[in-house]
Amino acid sequence: MIVPLTLVACALLVLPARASAHVRLRELGGDVGREVPPSTVRDVDLHSVATTFDLLAACLRAGLPMATAAAAVANTAPAQLSFALRRASELLTLGAEPATAWADAAADPAIESLARMARRSARSGSSLAAAMTELAIARRIETEDAAAAKAERAGVLISGPLGLCFLPAFICLGIVPVVIGLATKVLDGGLL
Questions:
Q1: From residue 29, how far is each of 32, 34, 38, 41 by CA, in Å?
Q2: pLDDT, tens digit, for every residue of 135-161?
């Protein structure tokens, strides 16, 4: 009885209706398509951030203005970075100063370096594409270092349980037979 009801419920969700799946999921309580401010997102995948920086560098090398490049890249960026890129793009399009446009991004420590470089580039007139490439490389190095640190930590943490497993076996199979063998020779031989 449960299986047919489950299949009917899934069919009602999947079948085309007047409202799109996006609208139906939102009605069910999902947060599809909603922008998430940076303060609510905690975990950021540094590889996707590095890829976003590479895409931004490619757009800037192609000759797009910063506002257009940020808007184009924001669609594929992680939520935290996407929010900052969209906001900066909108403010730059409206004619805001770069310091004002990148203020929200500068408040977030995960993407503060992007805001700092964008403001510096706007102030000095230098190209931001090379800086974005260097920033992407730095993010990838951070990711590799974090992965290596986690692997080393796992190696250290696994030694405790392994030691607790092998120590009794070593005592039972290595030390106890030697002690019993020596004790039988000493006690049977009349040395004591």
A1: 9, 12, 21, 19
A2: 889 889 988 998 999 999 998 888 888
